[in-house]
Structure formats: C-alpha cells, structure tokens
Amino acid sequence: MSTSLSPLPGGLGDFGTGSGGAPSSGGLPARAGASGGSRALGARLTRRQKVAILVRLMVNGGARLPLADWPDGMQTALTEAMGQLRMVDHDTLSEVIEEFEQELDRVALCFPGAMAGALGLLDGHISPLTAARLRREAGVAARGDPWERISGLDAARLLPVLEEESVEVGAVVLSKLPTGKAAEVLGKLPGEKARRITHAMSRTGKVAPETVARIGITLSAQFDAQPVTAFQSGPVERVAAVLNFSPSATRDDVLKGLEEEDAEFAEEVKKAIFTFANIADRLAARDIPKITRGIDQAVLVTALAAASGAAERSRDHILDNMSKRMAESLREEMAEKGKVKEKDGEEAMTAVVAEIRRLEAEGEIILLSPDEEP
Which is one Gene Ontology cellular component term of this protein (predicted)? Predict the structure, then answer.
C-alpha cells in the first residue's frame, strides 16, 4: 500500500460526506461483531473517518506523510475525525484499505483543484510575469513556507517593506532572517529605526507562533503584489557588469560621462565595479592561491606583466601572497616576456577578473567591501 496521500482524488475533501464529513451517529464501538456487522460498520464510517484510519495505519508503519502541506482546514478535519474514532477491528480495516485501493486504481491523473495548487504545479514552467499576474488576480500567496521565501530575498527588496512596517513587525522579520542577511538589512536601515527594531527584538520571544505565521503570509503577499521587473539585477549592477569587461579607456570615458550627468549614480557604479586594479583592495590574501590555480600560467604572466599604474598594487598583492618559489618563477617569465601589447594585457587581466567572479559566484571566495582590509 502506498504511503503517500497525494494521489487521493481532491485530497481530504473527497473523503468527507456530502454535508462536510459529519461523523456517523455514535461513532465506533470498542469492539465490532461478526463479519457482517463489520461491513455494516464500514458503511457507516464517513469518508473522513476512513482517511483517519488510513493515516493512523500509515503512521503506525513508520510512514512520513506530507500532512503539513495540506491546507489548515484539511488538517483540522483530519484531526477531528481521528478524535471521533476508538478501536477498529481487522475486518473493518481490511474493508477501508480495499476501498482505498479501489479509489487509487480508478485514478489516472490528479489536479490540484484550486488556483494555488495549479500555480504551484506550474511553478518554473510558466513565466514569472504570468504567475505574478495570476496570483494577484486570484489573491493567492506563493506556495510553501513564506519565511523561506522571505529569507531568500535580497536586502534591497526587504528594505522598503521594513521601512514602512511597524517596529514590532520589523523585529519579527529580522529574528526570522539568517543572521548574515539580518545584519545586512539592519545596516541599511536608518539609524533610529534600526535601534528601535533591535530593542524590539528582545520582546519577540513572547510572540505566538500563529502571529509569526500570519506576519510571514502577509509579507509574502506584499512581495507577490510587487510588479515583476524585466531585469533580475538593478541598473547599478548591470552597468558595472558591462564596464567590468570593457577596455579601461572605454570604462574611464563612460564613468566620466556618468559623473557629469548623474554624480550619485556614477559613484554607486564605481563601488560596484571590480577590475584588475581592485584586486589589491577587494581580494583577501588567503584567496590568492585559489584564483591562481584556475588561471592558465601564460595568461597570468601576461596579466601581471601588463599591470601598470593603479594595477601595480594588485600585481604585487598577487605575487606577495603565493609561494616564494612560484612568485620567483612568475617574475622570471614576466622579465622574459618584456613589454606586453595593451590589447593582450587587457584580455589577460579580464580573464583573471572573470576567474575571480566565477569563484565568488560559486561561493569559493568572498570579495571584501571597499572599506575592509584585504
């Protein structure tokens, strides 16, 4: 017998009576009589009580059932049905199992039966724009634990909501977020609001679990109501990503133009840019061996030999934080290579930056903020 209730046609609701699954009068006696009496008793059981019997049987057998994924009303109905039952004899149990197996044999496909379930089923198959529109129109929240979804959002999306919500709600949100994410969000909040939320966190221990769940559902609905943007990253990140791989002359020219048009935006782009010259300030010394392992030595030699001006600090940072033997070998090859063409040097330094970005994306290294010591 299957240990999953997911194939049940329509779920628990189909196992209730037409009037909502009211219990049979008198419930079950402590002991059933002969086989005929058992069949009569089986016929008197409501469908919800039969589900309760099946769930009890599966739990006894060690099955882990996804009951927590059921709607609250279905979980309540199941619990109430279990509370109405006492002892069930072997004949009645066999009859319930046989009926359940017959139900399963007749099922070819199951559908969720509601918009929320349909959206969950099609998650990842339909476009985010369509999914967001359907959720808004149907008033459906995103599927799953809302706090898991909220914890996965970046600080930029969390910040506006926390700025608008009460201090008490903000304290609950920060308490539910991973420590690192909570610290990041707290650091971006205005000072007075951050202090008040931090103080309010001392009182979150008295908040009921139901209240925390309602806050999560409400906030998740707010995020669902936000329009889906065409781009996954913001304009600062997109511009910085393009300039990261642009020739230095182009990059400098674009930044100069941005400063004239919008100095504040230009400053944000500068902070987001990561080029070879930023290695000395943004890459920790302990991570140097990780990046050099993934770069072809000829490419690394070309990049180091081409480093001049602001990039010289990054060249020295790389050479000073690897084994002396390897550093000496690279310096010898750099001397033999001599002057490097500007185009070749740019390409080699871009390859080094690309390797650093790859390792960062995979979580192998963490780039320091401009204010931290490398």
Answer: plasma membrane
Q: CATH topology of 141-225 equal to that of 236-361?
A: yes
Q: Answer with the residue of higher pLDDT: 57 or 248.
A: 57
The answer to whether 38 and 28 are in contact (CB under 8 A) is: no
Out of 38-52, 192-206, 297-311, the most confident range is 297-311
Q: How far apart are CA 374 and CA 108, in angstroms?
A: 61
Residue 289: CB partners within 8 Å, gap ≥ 6?
321, 322
Q: Can you tell me the distance from the alpha carbon of 131 to that of 224, in angstroms, rounded to the nearest whole number?
A: 10
Q: Determine the Cα–Cα distance for residues 26 and 209; give it in Å rounded to an integer.
A: 36
Q: If you average pLDDT over residues 340-359, what whole number do you get?
A: 92
Q: Where are the domains of the chain?
A: 11-106, 141-225, 236-361
Distance (Å, rounded) from C-alpha 279 to C-alpha 367?
Answer: 9
CA 236 to CA 272: how far, in whole Å? 7
What are the Cα distances from residue 265, in Å, to 53, 121, 185, 202?
64, 41, 21, 38
Which whole number is the average pLDDT over 336-349? 92
Per CATH, the number for 141-225 is 1.10.220.30
Residue 168 has φ and ψ, to the nearest 5°, of -65, -45
Where are the extended beta strands (E) located within 266-357?
none
Structural contact between residues 310 and 274, judged by C-beta atoms closer than 8 angstroms: no
Q: Is 45 helix (H, G, I), strand (E, B) or coil?
A: coil
Question: Is residue 301 helix, strand or coil?
Answer: helix
Residue 58, Cβ density class (10 Å: 0-12 exposed, 13-18 middle, ≥19 buried): middle
Q: Report the pLDDT averaged over residues 350-372.
A: 84
Note the residue count of the chain: 374
pTM over 0.70: no
Phi, psi at residue 366, to the nearest 5°? -125, 120
Q: Which amino acid is at 142?
A: A
Those residues with Cβ within 8 angstroms of residue 315's Cβ, 6 or more apart along the chain or in another chain: 304, 307
CATH tag, 236-361? 1.10.220.30
Instruction: For tokens 């329009």, name the residue.
Output: 227
